[in-house]
Structure formats: C-alpha cells, structure tokens
Amino acid sequence: MMLFDFIDTALLLGLFVLLAGCYGLFYTIGKLMHSFNWINVGYVCYFFQVVVTVLIVMFAPLGVGWKLLIIASCVACFKIPPMAFSYLELTHR
Hints:
Layout lengths: L2 H31 L2 H24 L4 H28 L2
Helix pairs in contact: 1-2, 1-3, 2-3
C-alpha cells in the first residue's frame, strides 16, 4: 500500500464514521423536535455515508473481509438511530 493510498483510505473511513454520527445526531434532533426537516438532514447524511461506502469498496486497497464489514456497518447504521430512539421512548415514558 502506498502512502497516499493509506491517507485516502484513512480519510474515507473517518468520513464514514463522521457521517454515521451526523445521521444519528440529526435523526434524534428531528425526532425530539418533531421536525421532518432535521430528520431529512439526517437522511442526507446517511446518503453520503452510502456514497462513501461505495468509494471505499471500489477504490480502497482493503481486503474483501474489511470491505464486507464496511458494507454491513453501513446497512446497520441505517437502523440503529430509529431502534435506539424507539427503545428510549419505550423505557422513558
């Protein structure tokens, strides 16, 4: 792996995690404020996370196992904020 490949991959993986966090944050803000606009901002962040996932899978010099883990993580990230928020609503009523 070349140095630039390492840096590009690290940046893409960092962006992947950042976008996952932004999706969860904006989704939660939207649910708490009953604002579909904030929820939609969260979905836009998730869309960009999917784009970053595709870039990682296509261009990052990672092994197949790591790429499959990134894909599975991206799919799981879509369900985590709604499930967590539902659970918190259920336990705090």
